[in-house]
Amino acid sequence: MIHRTEMIVVWIVLLRTLTGETKTFTFQDCNSNLSVLEVLPGGGWDNIRNKDMGIVMNMNYSRCRTTEDRQYLIPDEVYVIPQKQTNIDIHSELIEDWQSYKDAFSNDVNAEASYLKVLNGKFSEKLEETKIHNVYDKTSTTRVQVRNVIYSVKARPDFSFDITFKKQLLEIAQCLASNQTQRALYLAEMLVLRYGTHVLTSLDAGASLVQEDQVSESFLLDNAEQKSSVTASAAVSFFSTVNIGIKGSSQTEDEMTKKYRENTTDSKIESHGGVPFYPGITLAKWQEGISNNLVAVSKFGLPLPFFITPERLPEVPETMVKEIANTLDKAINLYYAVNTHPGCLDSKSPNFNFQANVDDGSCHSANTNFTFGGVYQTCSFYLPPYGKIDFANSLCQSYFTKNPLTGDFSCPPRYTPVLLNSVNYHIPERHTDCTKDCAFFIFGCDTNCETTVYYYKIYVSSYWCAALESVPQDSGLLFGGLYSKGAVNPVTQTHACPPYFYPLRLFEDLGVCVSSDYEMGGINAVPFGGFFSCKTGNPLAGHLNTQAPGIQQYFFYRDSPTSYAMKCPLGMSQHQAFLSDGCQVMYCIQAGELFAGRLPPIQLPPFRHAPLFNFTSPEVRTLHSEGNRTWVKEPGSLVWTLVSSKNARGLTKGRSRAPSQEGPTIAISVTVTVILVALIAGVGYSVKWWRSRGFRRAEEGTLVGSHPTYGSTAVFEELEDSDT
Q1: What is the pLDDT of residues 47-64, one digit of tens each?
Q2: Does the CA dihedral 384-390-393-398 come out positive or negative?
């Protein structure tokens, strides 16, 4: 039987459909006393941070659907599978090091391997906490988990997009259609910032209790043959805290549990859903409150670009839908690339890099000490109309950097310049033109000013000097680290160079610390292994035909035309020097203890400056035909429509004539308006003149003789009264 509320909603939907009006219904429109199921798929997900993001799926409640047991309201594009039987899963495991750590609730979505799988979840709070314990407390991790699943909640495969999310996709499409690729990439990076890298398509709703203990490595080594006993001891420890009454089955197990507790350096129990955990809670008490406090205890999803399909974007040509997906894929790849920190992951190696999250084979000792030939930076400019050469030169002056070894924009003999990146900057300048308009002299002259913004284009290219052949000893510069506004120098832990070093500026604010004082500066010098970027490899790491290209090029920059490997020499690890307008610049050093104790912060998009919207770019109104039909877009609209090619030609012709007809129409309207205003003003002036003449006649004939001053005032007041 259809309920009254549902019938009302159906009629409202039908009426709005017939009138062309659409509305997203919220659960309040259902006028139901049922609770709303809060564990819903269709949300964005950051697979690097294990974090829920913005809503991607349209959460419409127009049908007022409920779960099968009629306990919860659910959206139209979600279906729920209730668990007909009550199961409590109990699991105990040993996690020997942070590299094999898997999140208790996000393991399924973290296993999705469309991007660099090893980076999934590496910036989650749980993993970072575990890494610090494992490395500095010399521990391993045990986990005991109790889980109760009530519903499996899934998104329909053909779900539609949330209107806000969809609008942002259409804005990217507009930029791509206008050939504004950089702005489209910027908008795609902003989309990743708001919605993450994946979309959650399936969730298990329920509750879970989790205990994670940090147990000393020495205890585990002593009991390497009894790992099952170790995990059993972890379970006994957990259930004694939860007060379920499980005891060891033998004296051996009791002794193992006692030793386990003695060697536990940190223990934490967390409740996810159900009744909040407190010491002494029973499992039965916790389970009673699950139905009223559901959370997601398991998550699965797919990459965001996977869902960018023609069916979900019927307003956009199919070829452009693919371009949107590719642009979004590039933005996600860059997000992964920027947060990839290759290095030595073996904590027992002298080259161990605490900040590294991907192994690059640099645990081996370095066998070469390279010479650093310095850096330099050039600048050129494009002069706009009304531009001033002196001003353009002053803009470039702040970007010029000469190599101290040559005193010029060049490298020393036997060193080769290697371009790291070239960046274009746009600096605005306002130019105001004023003219006087005296067309109707009776109103005086008007000054009309028009301000135009012109842009100076500054082209900045940054180079470093690599020794590709044998060079004299002590012929180069010492390297003392580098720093920028967003990162301190690992050598000094400040935004400064070590003693006897000075900074050379690259890009916007990168300071590269160098010194030619081998005696005094050598104390703080760091073994240097070159630079590379998203565009060029590292000559010191060898040619591509002799070495593997490295993680950066293999996963992220395969299309970069470089002859050298995008990696560091053997025994050195790479670190990000700067992010130059979406392009990573890396440097290679023998890190050692420089980065000890500090995990790298997550770097969030966007990774490039917001490009200015090119208003001079012609708006594309038609796209290539599909058979005998053509995609057409209204001016200023984000939506494309597929029409017959004949109609498309008529529409574009009509629109192309519109600007030429609009100008004369506006001119005629303005002229007629001005004439009417002039006529009205003339009539008003004549009436005023006539009244003043009549006033003077009355004045001369009656009042002036006896009361000259008072008479004029009296008559003026009478005239005012008569007007009112």
Answers
A1: 999 999 999 999 999 999
A2: negative
